[in-house]
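[stage:ingest] chain + small molecule (flavin-adenine dinucleotide)
[stage:ingest] validated
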Amino acid sequence: MAETPYDVMIAGMGPAGITAAIFAQRLGLRSVVLGDIPGGNLYMIESLMNFPGFPGGVPGTQFGAMAFQQAAQEGAEFPMARLERLTHAESRFHGVDANGQGYRASAAIAATGRVPKRLPVPRASMKGIHFCSICDGPLYRGQRAALAVVGSDNAAAQHAVSLSRIADQVLLVCRSSRLKMDAAHQRLIAAQPNIRVMVGHEVAGFEGSDVVEALVLKATGGEQHAVRVDGVFLAIGWTPNTALFDLSVDRTAEGYLKTDARLMTSFPGLFAAGDVRDTDMWQVVTACADGARAARSAAEFLETR
Ligand SMILES: Cc1cc2nc3c(=O)[nH]c(=O)nc-3n(C[C@H](O)[C@H](O)[C@H](O)COP(=O)(O)OP(=O)(O)OC[C@H]3O[C@@H](n4cnc5c(N)ncnc54)[C@H](O)[C@@H]3O)c2cc1C
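[stage:predict] done
[stage:export] tokens:
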């Protein structure tokens, strides 16, 4: 198969991949960005309120479209197809997209993001079901809201604590008979009088016509009952999109790509940026910062070869 040659191949068109493309082009690297949704997960953000420079917020789709346009103006190429597989042979990365087109590059940047795990229950995609308290918690500010967090690990604790400053009541629902968070997080939870913990309950479904109005809970071996809530935040995990990387590369137990300080993975020349990498903050601003750093590190890597 004929392969088009590039300096850097970028998988993913979200904020990390697009920023990587802008920086790569400006550093003089010919770059190709594989993906089919300009802006990646930005389309899910109704109004991006926490990115500097946009007082009053900006619709995620608009931000994504503008970033895409900027990268295209810098000369990055967008075949508008997802990357099916990335391999490495003879000192080059080789990629094949969904249309069967081949690409090769001396460096590659993984910016494929992650997808939230959903509950395997009816109506699990209703409005009012969220995955990110930093992003969507402020929607409930000043509403005397009753919110629920589903999960039991440290991430669930952090969601519950940050929401307890916004909502009147926060219900933390945990399927197992005890919380899986560490002792420090348990103390944080215990210190918030408006957080109620309910262990040994699983979510059986949601009620509401359009927007979620109640959470249907089922006690282990017991009856179902509904609890009124204005919103639900799921903290039951995410799946990083890494199946396409057909390379031996170090990952965390959850599958995130491990990187060093320059954002290079354990596979020389493969960098990772944004939500797909092992990080502790999954936000647009951090994804953009990662994209910039990964592009610069890729340029340095190519210079030393
Ligand atoms: C509902 C919701 C609300 C959010 N609100 C906010 C907010 O208010 N503020 C904020 O800062 N952050 C928010 N976030 C988080 C933010 O969207 C992410 O942190 C950010 O988009 C990460 O950027 P990324 O480029 O790493 O990944 P993504 O934006 O996920 O982009 C990666 C893209 O790569 C694609 N991809 C996957 N596999 C392949 C492949 N094989 N080939 C090509 N492409 C592939 C994915 O489909 C995706 O489109 C929110 C997230 C969600 C889900």
